[in-house]
Specification:
alpha/beta, Cytidine Deaminase, domain 2, PurH-like, MGS-like_dom_sf
């Protein structure tokens, strides 16, 4: 073999953006461009002189194009270690030329999956040769530069213009990016095929979880923290923003609770108001306006600056009422004609969101300084009178309010106590470190409305003290899951005080 070989750049790309300019730039720096199939044709049409892969390997593309670059001549040229006697001997023996640059973008599996393509077409978009080229070049980054993103083309040429070669630091950076991209690519294939084949993800199995940047955020919870919104590939966010300022990190945290509220109340015309990730108002009504006004009445002070979710189409009358108070977000499944435009003009900063079917994860991931916690992300089972147990006089006449209180407590931060009367939360105590304080706060908010109200707790009462508070406030019925070692004392005290207590059996903690 020649002692001084012409440097070679192997280019095999699906995305042709900017590749002609890159190839011309590499050629201007003395690189021989090697390519095949569609890439070679595209480059030649762009005026680039190309050496076909078959001219190096002696083997044309086979199996309908499935095998083009998977050949010892190509892989050996990429993986050969410069200056290593054994590798040099093998290259000499088998006539393997060195390949110094690999440029490769992969088949669009993710885009094909999003298009709803059938399984056979989806499988054909699983790149084999490209991934092999990338991994080989990245492994041998001491000697080979691997380029996997079109955004790096200009940097590649700039590096050559300034230094006439690629520094080790630059090749390391490209190699790390290449491994990240192939790892993400494989994980997308896994998720896409699982979805296509109807295979669900179990909680207790190794997680493969790539994330795509959906939106860069101004900052996180506080200005000193950088942040962004990410989504798994193949997923879309469950809302469309119609107007208003860009969503913030804290808006998106609150939206999680709001979306859960819209889910648990979807069977009725309801309104949920959320502040700092927990409800401060919830109500149902015959119209969106009635639901909103009843929800706002629960805690109008906390509602200021909160976010609103309504489960039905928002009309102009409701929209006008909402604009009388400062809110960050209004979310609903739809808006009557002209409402979105009215909100945009009247409250240009209010973020108006149309809820659409979108990302509804089956698993919930929580990262903290201990690691990552993973649990099933599903709404709790609705209590049934036939499955739970009444202590004291049954009150089926209050069942609708009891269930509404239970639903509200289920989306409220623990410890959670909710008082409901006539289809509206009149007092919500959420996020307290003990249940007595949560009950006292909810009762204080309810004031006289506590008389004749029902009360829900997201977990059992460890002592009868909260039941006694409820009795003094005039609460007539309670729903709680039970499960305390002192259940008998709590149930007995409720009966003594004339409170009807339903033991539902399902705890709904939300930490």
């Amino acid at each position: 073999m020649e002692k001084f070989e012409t440097r070679k750049a192997l280019i095999s790309v699906w995305d042709k953006t900017g590749v002609v300019e890159l190839a011309k730039g590499l050629a201007a720096h003395g690189y021989e461009i090697v390519s095949s199939s569609g890439t070679a044709k595209h480059l030649e049409e762009g005026g680039v002189k190309v050496t076909e892969v078959v001219d190096l390997t002696g083997v044309p593309a086979i199996l309908g194009g499935r095998v083009k670059t998977l050949h010892p001549t190509i892989m050996g040229g990429i993986l050969a270690r410069r200056g290593l006697a054994q590798d040099e001997a093998d290259r000499e023996k088998f006539g393997i030329p060195l390949i110094d640059v690999v440029v490769c973008t992969l088949y669009p599996f993710e885009e094909t999956a999003k298009s709803g393509a059938e399984l056979d077409k989806l499988i054909e978009k699983i790149d084999i040769g490209g991934v092999s080229l990338i991994r080989a070049a990245a492994k041998n980054y001491f000697h080979v530069a691997v380029v996997t993103e079109t955004a790096d083309y200009a940097r590649v040429l700039d590096e050559l213009d300034k230094k006439q070669e690629f520094t080790l630091e630059f090749k390391q950076e490209l190699a790390l990016k290449a491994f990240k991209n192939t790892a993400s690519y494989d994980s997308v294939i896994y998720r896409g095929l699982c979805r296509e084949l109807g295979v669900g993800e179990e909680v207790m199995e190794e997680k493969i979880f790539p994330l795509r940047v959906e939106q860069k955020l101004r900052y996180g919870e506080n200005p000193h923290q950088r942040a962004g919104l990410f989504l798994p590939p193949l997923e879309k966010r469950p809302f469309e923003q119609l107007s208003g300022k860009e969503l913030s990190y804290n808006n998106l945290l609150d939206l999680d609770t709001l979306l859960r509220g819209c889910s648990v109340f979807q069977d009725m015309c309801a309104c949920t108001i959320v502040k700092h990730t927990t409800p401060c108002g919830a109500a149902c009504g015959a119209t969106p306006l009635e639901a909103f006004e009843k929800a706002l009445a629960c805690d109008p002070v906390s509602a200021f600056g909160g976010i609103i979710g309504i489960t039905r189409k928002v009309d102009l009358e409701t929209a006008k009422k909402i604009t009388e108070t400062f809110f960050e977000i209004l979310a609903a499944p739809d808006f009557e004609e002209g409402v979105a435009e009215y909100m945009k003009e009247k409250k240009p900063n209010l973020r108006v969101l149309k809820l659409v079917p979108g990302y509804a994860p089956t698993l919930q991931f929580t990262g903290n300084r201990c690691g990552f916690l993973v649990q099933e992300d599903k709404l709790p089972k609705l209590p049934q009178e036939t499955e739970g147990k009444w202590h004291g006089t049954p009150r089926p006449d209050l069942w609708e309010d009891i269930i509404f209180a239970w639903k509200t407590a289920a989306i409220t931060k623990s410890n959670a106590i909710v008082l409901v009367k006539d289809g509206a939360a009149v007092g919500i105590g959420g996020g307290f470190t003990n249940r007595v304080d949560a009950a006292e706060y909810a009762i204080r908010l309810a004031k006289d409305k506590a008389k004749g109200a029902v009360m829900a707790s997201d977990a059992f009462f460890p002592f009868p003290d909260s039941i006694e508070l409820a009795h003094r406030a005039g609460v007539v019925a309670v729903i709680e899951p039970g499960g305390s070692i002192r259940d008998s004392q709590v149930f007995q005290r409720a009966e003594e005080l004339g409170i009807s207590l339903f033991e539902g059996g399902t705890r709904t903690f939300r930490h």
